[in-house]
Predict the 3D structure of the following.
Amino acid sequence: MNHFLHRILPSLLFTLGLLSAATAQAQDAPTLKKIKDTGSITIGNRDSSFGFSYTEGSAVPIGYSIDICQRIVEAVKAELKMPSIEVKYQTVTSQNRMPLVINGTVDIECGSTTNLVERQKQVAFSPDIFRYNVRMAVKADSGIRSIADLNGKAVATTAGTTSYRLLKEQEKGKNIDAANLSGKDHSESFLLLQSGRASAFVLDDILLAGLIANSKNPKDYAIVGESLRTENQALMFRKDDPQFKALVDRVVIGMMKSGEMERLYNKWFMSPIPPKNININYPLNAETKDAFANPSSKGI
């Protein structure tokens, strides 16, 4: 009997494993099932992440992240064999973007979100679509050139971002006394700088470049100071959905390998863009080139 079990047990376990895998795959595709059942996909967009995801001058969100997500929608149609899927948009902020993904309101967030290991406890991410440095925007005539120059001044950040924490963790930032003023979105935070209520606005340098380029007088502002951290932007979606992540990864990596991602990059960051036909003029940096050559969603 023992000899008989010894012979059939491996085959039995293998069969059970296949059944378990098939069951798990069926259970692990809630996003695609939701899209199929409703006939729609909801994209989380930002209002003022210029170049990435914004609505100024457009009836629907536009930008680099939005274009990538449109490619993902096409892949979802093919996967589900659905010729038409309604695309809905849900504007999100830095504060509510994760809750809206987690609770199912948003299927994929296509904005300007950093892939942090701590966030991976609650959500999942695509491979990095952009890498950048966290720095600060100031008025060009302010005399501020370093973090140390912020002592005794007010600093604007956007609620829900890591900017102020990074500032205080930086060696030169540990001993400064800087009040933190929080805007609900990037436009409101930039307004704090424009109006003089804040002396600096700390954020991803590419987003600062976009806000400055779209301001009334771009030459009035400068991006200065030490890099607080090199960060990585990615698309965000629900955790524990391996089938949907595999689809997203396949599309994103395919775009990187084919050169389409770099073409989109040049369209949004090295060419005139709506609504004012201003060129953000942010050349592809070494960090983003590496992201395209070696796709990764490991986070920081």
